[in-house]
Structure formats: C-alpha cells, structure tokens
Design brief:
The chain has 8 helices and 11 strands. It has 225 residues and is an alpha/beta fold. It is elongated, with a radius of gyration of 19 Å.
Length: 225
Amino acid sequence: MKLLVVEDERRLARSLAGGLAAEGFTVDVAHDGVTGLHRAAEGDYDLVVLDIMLPGLNGYRVCAELRAAGSEVPILMLTAKDGEYDEAEGLDTGADDYLTKPFSYVVLLARIRALLRRRTRGGAPEIVLGDLRVDPASRTVRRGEAEVELTAKEFAVLEHLAVNAGRVVPKTEIIENVWDFAYDGDPNIVEVYVSALRRKLDAPFGRRSITTVRGAGYRLSTDGG
C-alpha cells in the first residue's frame, strides 16, 4: 500500500518513511502544505499522515481542501498541540484519526493499520485469481491450501500485479507504486522481484502465472496461472 507523509520536521519525516518502508509500505514525503496537497490530490495513496503545523498551508487547510475536492483517502493527523479543541478541529475538517506528538511509533503503526482495515472492511479486500488468493488486509498469500511466504517488497509487487490482473503493467508503473516517486536506481530491480515471485508462487505448484511481455511489462493471469 502507498502512503504519503506530510511533515516539515525532516528528521522525523525520514524516520517515519524509513520505518514504514520497512513494514512493506511505499512511502512518499512532502515537507510543506502546498506540496502535500498537490501530491495527495494527484497521487493514488491509500493513506495520508498529515502534520498540522506546516509551512504554506497548515494541515487543517490541506485536509479541508482534499475533502472539498471529494477525496476519501484516510487521513491521520499529527500535531505537537494537544487538547480537545485541537482534536475536534482536526476531525471536523475531515481527518479520520489524530495523534499528538511525541508519540510511540508502535501506536502510530497500529493506528495506520486500523485505518487501512476500516477502509477495506466494506469491500472485497481479498483478491482471488483461480486458486491464488492475495489478501491486502492481512498481507497473506495462498496458493490453494498452502500459504506462500513473501517478503514485504515481494508482496507489494504481487499486490500491484493482482489489482491489475489481466493487464500489462509496465516496469515504471510498478516502481512508482511499489518503491516511490524519487527512486532512481536500476529499473531492472523489478525483474529480480518478479523472478522471486515465480520461484515461490509458480515453480512449486507447476504454474505459470506471471507473463513477461517484452518491451511492455508484466501480466498476472486472471485465473492465477
């Protein structure tokens, strides 16, 4: 899943981005309200972690403008302030949850996961492709009755292919959604992860679920191979 952290304290922003990336999330970072609003409005994010005290536009304004534009992305607000009035103001502008600094990273992660579960509760979070089942909520993968152990990045690549099953997904799109907008490494890193998925999802079961479309990208079969 893809998160946006809007936080002007750069050390805290780096710490949050690194910790969340280690949990398997793709994380983009903005350091001011104007940039944060633009990225949140234009990007396909699953959740926004939004500081209130930001240069340019404060978090209240960013949140209010996103909601006025029709965005339903879950928003977790962070602030050095405390008190019932501040919390009420944040929630009144459309935030889904509120956390006061200093906070425990464990608590932050639990709040993020709770908001993501709440978002998928009314829909169909599990993606079923034949006997291949990908569950974004629990971050588990099953091939028939067997659970397949994947690393966080392997799961993120598979999830993006599964959401787009049957469609050819370019490498650049996978990098943008699984790594982040600033990634400037070797795009062939995608091949490494696709190869790992084939070893784990296909080879032990005699399947061939991920096809390479030369010069275009990868396609995950809608029947799971």
